[in-house]
Amino acid sequence: MPKADTRIQKKNQAAILSAALVVFSQFGFRGSTLDQVADEAGLSKPNLLYYFPSKEAIYTTLLARLLENWLEPLKNIKADGDPVEELLAYATHKLEMSQHFPRESRLFANEIIQGAPRIGEVLRGELRELLGELAIVINGWAEAGKIRPVDPYHLIFSIWAVTQHYADFDVQVRAILGDADPFEGAHAHIEAMLRALLTPAGSNP
Q1: What's the CATH code, domain 63-198?
Q2: pLDDT tens, 125-145?
Q3: What is the pTM assigned to this prediction?
Q4: In the CATH hierarchy, which fold is given to the domain comprising 1-53?
Q5: Helix boundaries (H) for 32-178
Q6: How many Å apart are CA 146 and CA 141, to the nearest integer?
């Protein structure tokens, strides 16, 4: 039976992953080096390699944790809940992730821009399957008159686009808004937009 990691080992592993997130989200996988990650973590390169054998190993560990956190909210959409509120809750969750975990969002964006070489199988497998199941639910809501008819895939794509924009294009957003907190207005705007899109005709949005 393998020994459990010690407190110091767990601390160093967490420091390496935290440092790697800073470096990879800024420079991408190709533009980053183990030396940069080690310096950011405050560890020597040999010490870093004791915990992770390669840059690839660190990067894939980060992506695996990120994907687990990002897929969970999709799984939590309840088919028997109020459709508009379920989709609004999902959009709110995604916006809060952009607000509080912008580096993770940029790391994911960089991976996608590179052609998703390390997570392509997950995108074509688990993510596609999840969206397929959700599409059936959304189409069912529309057929029952609970929401307006809407393409379920493009609806989710739109939610991703409008929420992740605030993390992935943070510099542009803040350059335009100046000192204003972009998230103060973003929540209300996205909620109003989705309610108008989804609320059936004749109902109060």
Answers
A1: 1.10.357.10
A2: 999 999 999 999 999 999 999
A3: 0.87
A4: Arc Repressor Mutant, subunit A (1.10.10)
A5: 34-41, 45-51, 55-75, 83-100, 102-113, 120-122, 128-143, 152-168, 170-177
A6: 5
